[in-house]
């Protein structure tokens, strides 16, 4: 039978005769060298050459592909080039290869035998990532190393081990797991409903403004579409937040979302491994990850920078799209609570470290701003001083804000603020010059001002009426116009098509 | 050029020393009992089904064990020959991949005296052949997520597109199609497709005939079984059984032909561009439709790259592909511009919409893009999985894809059409060497897009004009010199029937740069992604456009703001009058 299969490319034009021939099982291998074969090849060749260029691009195209194939035509996004030497006019920074700075860890602290027990204990409190004993072992090996070569080799190992030692924990941070978090403050009370409150998905679907099913064409579950007023609400929340932050002296920065994985690692996030939260592009595009938060991009902005002490604290904010390869499957997080992509307004700050707890103060400032924003939006929330296991590697101290989600009756995290002290700046090489001219590591602090789908969820669920309408907080009115979302009278115009079954 | 050597050792096992670059010159082949099947046409694909091979003493790439693991594979020689030979490891992980021998790869001369070229390998064959391994081998275009042959039961297409080929390739339409292809300058072998289609129809006829025969035989058999009276029942039974067997055998032999023909025709026809709009048919070059002089400015041609870095409004960085940070006033301006454009579009009746930035391959292909082209779209890294090239995730952001993904496999009530949406969001374009400098060629940019879906082509054309009007109004609000351009067929994408570009003047480049466009897509995406009007069941017609590409506009604004050393961000009429 296989001989029949073989002939397909050759079967055309004079087909019926040949088909009969085949079906009679009477063809001979000579058919292969028949004229049709060569005609066939001839015919294909012209088409093949256009496809070829695609194939070449597939295989060899890289971010820095230097040659464009003649047959390729401009895309609607691209403008027809009049010259081909634009490359040399690109900014200098784009022409150079990314070189991560060498981490400048606090060896004096890490490798002091007096601190060994303390650091070991801290690691144990923080999920046990990092091996301080190995760092000490390597440190000693480094001191003993004879040759320059050996020193270099041990140094590299030492760097990679030291890189993963977590930040110190604030003495007031509760020790242990998430449930040990200390409730620092509770604002207002749970809203009383005289009906069973609906979930955001139920509300959104009734309003015909949210789709969370039939999303398989994108990232699948954990993806959502906002339609009409809900999409506007998202924009309104961003503009509301930005206007407040501007009043507070934050400078707006627009950040790139595609980052070299090294930047993300330096901020204290893992980009490799089964459980990584970080999306990565295919290798053909070079080493590129999608930022999970603007904190990473802003870290990249300040990398290798030296500030003047008088210019600190520096406070910036960014609206960014955050991408997370979430894997959790907790029932109450279904819907739009934990999603693969969302828009977030992030606050980020740099402070000096002159012994007056500057970064601690900025952390408190960010926390105050967050609370102020959520109070304006009428949310019932609690502030948690997070326990050591929840600090990740970079945070010295972290406060989460959780709001009550009446639909599924749980406290949902809507904001998080961390003081990373010098953890990130030692890895990203961020310095400041103090009054006497000494170069010191700056401290970094970050906090969420508005994480969008969760904020939308909290606002919808807490402000719902029995008829499925939602009355949004007054504070948003200048950015939204109207403040009532009402379910439409007509039926949902969209219907999902049934999956076709294959033959 | 005849470097292909096929040596038949015996009828059951052969050793082939194949210089795979030159497969097309294959002179003879006894395909009986062979698991290696070759397509000798354009793509030169080799499909290998070595699961039954037990004695592979292959030369240098595969160990016998790894061959056995290579079940059901379609191997794609995507690397250059020597690279591949180096990747011995990869043989072991090569499950379900395509080996594609590209003619453009450098040809390694094969001379007897020298050691064999790296791609010379030997394969022992086994007695049996498997239908499925063969099905991909005959497809002359690469596999597509839009259609997967029924012969392949390892993967299903989420849409399984069936185009109306009878109409598409009808005698009346063929001339139009030919003119379309010519106007676009596409080198598409339409005759081949038509010939293949005829072939498929004939196989289909034969298949139908055989199926009818088979069912009539089984009916006759059923009658015969009940018949206790007639004479010579056993003889007739025997005769029927014999005939039945023969028909079954014929059908069994026909099916692979049918599947391959179906696949080839379908995959080829999916590559056909959409019909051209009458306005796009004739012009050889782009036509300038309108020009806007803009507010008086004193641009001296200094690049925004220099201006912005001097003013501390912009930081270019290598933290990511062509990364750029907008700072302070420029970042504020970005937000204001986005809000301005979104407000104008919304006030014109386009409803806000927020979707995803990441899409499945099927959406990318459904919009006529080539997902394998790294210069066309970003692809996300995936752990090794089956059918990776047609079942991946791609990063594109706010674009036609956002809307088509939403409308895919969806029916829309006709009385609610036309439906109009607009969206603010990130757009990511894979970088190419031809991109303009700085923000003009930014990889990431915020965009305001608009989209409309309707039931018929005439409404779509009206919507196109309406949307061009909106985009033109927006660009005039910016006060930058701009022009409106009707794009010639040669620059249209496969899915575009007509496109109007809105371009702004870039002083440093001394040319116009596209900052927006409106494209008429006919039913190209919806016939591939199954977006239908209800109850008619007809595919939706789609129009999609960009009204503001903020990075490019900001670059132009910066370049229009510099005045002989004095810098002040130009006051935009749209923001100035409103505030």
Automatic annotation (TrEMBL), chain A:
GO biological process, one term: seryl-tRNA aminoacylation
This protein's UniProt keywords: Aminoacyl-tRNA synthetase, ATP-binding, Ligase, Nucleotide-binding
Matching InterPro entries: aa-tRNA-synt_IIb, aa-tRNA-synth_II, aa-tRNA-synth_II/BPL/LPL, Ser-tRNA-ligase_type_1
Record flagged with keyword Aminoacyl-tRNA synthetase: yes
PROSITE patterns assigned to the protein according to its UniProt record, in alphabetical order: AA_TRNA_LIGASE_II
Chain residue ranges for the region called Disordered: 60-98, 482-503
EC number: 6.1.1.11
Tree of life domain: Eukaryota
SUPFAM superfamilies associated with the record: Class II aaRS and biotin synthetases (SSF55681)
Occurrences of domain Aminoacyl-transfer RNA synthetases class-II family profile (ranges): 232-473
An example Gene Ontology molecular-function term: ATP binding
Pfam families membership: tRNA-synt_2b (PF00587)
Comp. bias regions, Basic and acidic residues: 66-83, 489-503
NCBIfam families to which the protein is assigned, alphabetical: serS
Family, as annotated: Belongs to the class-II aminoacyl-tRNA synthetase family. Type-1 seryl-tRNA synthetase subfamily.
Protein name as it appears in the record: serine--tRNA ligase
